[in-house]
Amino acid sequence: MDGLVVGGKGGSVSGFSNKRNDQRLEERVSAGLERHLPDPKLGEGMVNLANNDYLGLANHLKVKEAAKAAIDLYGCSTAASPLITGFKQPHFELQERLLDWYGTGCVMLWNSGYVANQALFSALPEQDDHVFADRHIHHSVIAGLLRSKAKFHRFPHLDLDRLEECLRKRQGAAGNDFVVTESVFSMDGDCPDLTQLAELRARYGFAWIVDEAHALGWYGERGSGLLEQRGILEQADAVLGTFGKALGSQGAYLLLRREAWRRYLMNFAGEFIYSTYLAPSAAAAAAAAIDLTCRLSQERPLWREGSKQFRRKLRQGGWDVPNGDSPVVPLMLGEVETAMELAERLRAGGVLAGMVRPPTVPQGTSRLRFSLKTNLSLETIADQINQLLGGAEP
Ligand SMILES: Cc1ncc(COP(=O)(O)O)c(C=O)c1O
User: Fold this and answer.
1) What's the 37 CA to ligand 1 centre distance in angstroms?
2) Burial 251-282 (b: 16+ CB within 10 A, else e)
3) What percent of the chain has pLDDT over 70?
4) Which of 12, 109, 142, 202 is the most buried (most CB within 10 A)?
């Protein structure tokens, strides 16, 4: 196909050639990996284990009321970037709520977790710095690092001995070291040994950044994540949290140990400076969701037990499902075609699962991804899944 297709309507701009892009797209199509938007009604009336609304807060009455009240007071849009007039009372209150939740550090609100990670990793590490990231780190971190002048290294997934080897070699060399990990990995649902990471930080003195996107609400007495649960929150130099998952809203925050980092990002991160700020309703909804989340400390251990039980049941059905207690449960399959076929089989039976394939995950590790929901009976659903997938080759 020659030329640029405009707006999907098939028009082309003569003289404009985008051959490399066309070829990349063609390769993706022929590998059966082209992405498409789903039907907007997908998931309606189904058991939805594909979205990340783990605690069901996106539709909680109090969260919706908070959003509606903010719309009545502030309208639907901030209509400005935060440094102009986009920073409104709901943003201020949400920042205060977050500081109260963590009891330490300083915060910045962002339009999404993606831009927060991208901004942090493109802006903070400097030319002589080295950044070490788990191989399965989220795309947003990589997007930031590709724009950074710092050296970027990836260590094998969860392999902290390898990380330590790299850190040892860096001792005495010029520049700062950064280490970044997720506390619950978004596609694997597994967790690094955060206590060991905190010990490594004490020994090697790197700046430690932890993405808690999938741990919020699920771990910790107050629900602020796995660092809280492990009692090592104070050891992290920056924590990323997102509002678009367990907190039922949209947007993200960075909790930063150093005020200097906040001032730097506010002055040099284009994602913050030059973008219309998070809608006031999203900020108000997130604050209401945090209030609700804080009160669920009795339930959290039960949800984690439910995750273990869900995994056990699927394994009894003969499936390759790793141990763990997080809200992200992968059912490992390998081939793209198998993942597509089994996702379709579940969908036909009324269960919506994430179908994850390369390049989101490495070749040969296609999988179904279940995002658990605290308002569903997980044991019954695991039985239903086993039944629907019964007869398929594990
Ligand atoms: C680990 C992790 N970090 C960051 C993000 C980005 O967050 P957001 O959806 O708010 O852009 C995601 C979302 O998929 C994620 O899984």
Assistant:
1) 18
2) bbbbbbbeeebbeebeeebebbeebebbbbbb
3) 95
4) 109
